[in-house]
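Standup notes
- DV: blocked on the single-chain target, sequence here:
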Amino acid sequence: MSRRLRLLTAGALGMLILAGLAFAPASAARATGAVKWWTLETEHFFIHFPSGYGDTAREVALYAEKAYATLRAEFGQAPEKIDIVMDDRHDVTNGLTDPLFDRITLYMPNLRWSDLGNARRGSWLEALIFHELVHEIDMNQVRGVPSLLRRVFGKIILPSAVKPMSFVEGLAVYEKYKHLGESRANDARTRMMVRQMVAEDRLPLLDLIEQFYKRDSWPPAAELVYNYSSLLMKYIEETYGPEALASISANHSGSVPLLGGGIDRAVKKAVGVPLTNLYDDFVDALNEEFGAEIESICAEGVTSADQLTSLGSYVESPAWVRSAVAGSGQRLGYAAQSSKRSGIRLFDPASGVDQEAFALASGARGSFPDWSPDGSSILYVAPELRSGPYLGLDIYTRNLACGAETRLTDGERAYYARYSPDGATIYYARIEERNCGTALCAIDIATGSRRMIRSFEDCNGSIHSFSVSPDGNCIAMALWRSGRQDIYLLSADGANLRQLTADTAQDSDPTWTPDGQHILFSSDPDRIYNIYAVSIGSGEIRKVTNLISGAFFPAVSPDGQTLAFVGYTALGYDLFSTALDLASAPLAPRLSDASPAGTAADADAVAPSATLAAAEPRPYNPAQHLAPRMCLPSVSVDSAGIAVLGSEPVANTTCIGSVGWSFKESSPVYRLSGAFVQLAVSGGRRCGRRADLVDPEYHVDCANVGQTAPPWRPNARVRAYVARGPILALAGSQRCVGRCVGSRSDALHIKLAS
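- DV (later): unblocked, structure below
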């Protein structure tokens, strides 16, 4: 097999995966000798988890088996065995699915980013598993001619990998709504986005949601193919019956695109209507539904608010900045992020001037900024790509006079921070190791000493956001627990946790009034985000704004007369302001304590095995998972043959073996290579680290990512060597790019050399 052909083959593999999923490289830290891995086996899953996650692994097993039974009954097909890897090394909540090797990775931190879904969920973990399992089952559907080809070539045959992303991600989001009761298909942010597009006549064309691609304009591709497309899936099933989506998936899984297959044919065959006509009807339905909702909001009376900025994309965390930094008068400091430029900005309400205080290196840098009380510095969260790579979050400050940046935490997994009113203390939230929980901590600025204030252990305790009272004695906190996100009051020493709101609405980003008598926050009790205020003394909750779009991140001016907040338009988020008069704000009816549930049918969809809770995990053995999953024919100018591929899930190790015939030399050629993020062998030792096994001739680094060992030939001797650097033995793997960005990994090559 020529190098060019290998590159093309590997690239095709990567494209197949990327076409259907948000696939990313595995973390090297998952397979270190410092962490012992275990496996819990159920009827349809291998649950792989690090030490300390045994109880959570059993919870994962129960959710997975329940979802499996539900989805297999709906779609008709499912892999017989699926690997689930519980990864606690990323500081961002997410899940990834690899249908080629039947592997699901769960990134375990339960942080504020999980509210991209819906905080009303009973369990974020259940929702995450369900979403990824929809991908795994949907992407593995195969019928007709592709089914025959899969029997020969294995899992490389994935006809569903070429489906439009709207029918991949939109389907997963909708299925969560249908079976769990809550998802982005019915959450307030999705409805806000669509409502504003209807109000401004900006609903997207069909081609904008059919594929996932980079898009500089708003809404970004992710918002369209996940949130918006889930409403399309909901419309299809509600209009054409409960089997419509499964029928579309089945029809597409048996199609051959080059022979007239594809999503258009699959839709028409399933529902009898061309996709273009179906989409036009869907747009009409959205205009009717959300047009009526807009009329209802307007009838109640829309809050008069001034739009201060026109940047669009993402704007967050406004704060009133002291004149010592801002010049004469008060200004609003805030963070702005877009695909083109990100930075910390200052807006002067008096003059209307909006200017950048300083730019930031990336779109994710500078999240949730907070200005020091004297206006001399700013506090913010910044990500760092660490070994693996995996994303780590830490807290930084920047001196605004000289621009110097100071790192306050290093590998502490800190993701949110705020100054105390006297500027002597920095409070921050961090991820707790091994329990999916979070903790509130503090740094004494003068001494640098640190202390934990309060820990919220287990997966049902996640600090979303917080702020310190004007007198410094209390902390208002948005805390997610058991499917609800409410406002709590906590003493600055960690004692006396008091719940102020208690319902199924998603309460977030609390801030204090200057007199310390009220806490303002964003909430969606009617699935429309607005600003609310809760009285510390009476507990009364008042509705401060009533907007067509939404309102987030409240910030009260020092005189208590003006409310700044982040609002939404069809072009993204921007800064708004309105007069603040809590005395005249109406009392707000709140939701009941009852959490939404899935359908009645789902309640009895599966009875977990009685033996599952008593099942004992065993030490993880990578060799048990390396069986070949697919084979690839290879033909080049001078050789022909066949290659087989297998993969072990925890270290994400792909092994490739090939055999063929060299026309040039009239002899057989062989190859065996492994793409190792880090070797997960018995005892945690790395193979091939001895110096006498290193072969400088085939040393690989980022400057030469295409180099691999030559083919093996008969009558040769076996040699093993480690290539230091980010190369994977399968040249052209989609993971190679990630390895070239500041990470370190080992690639073990075994070759026969004469």
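- Follow-up: Residues 1-33, 113-117, 592-608, 676-754 have pLDDT under 50 and may be disordered.
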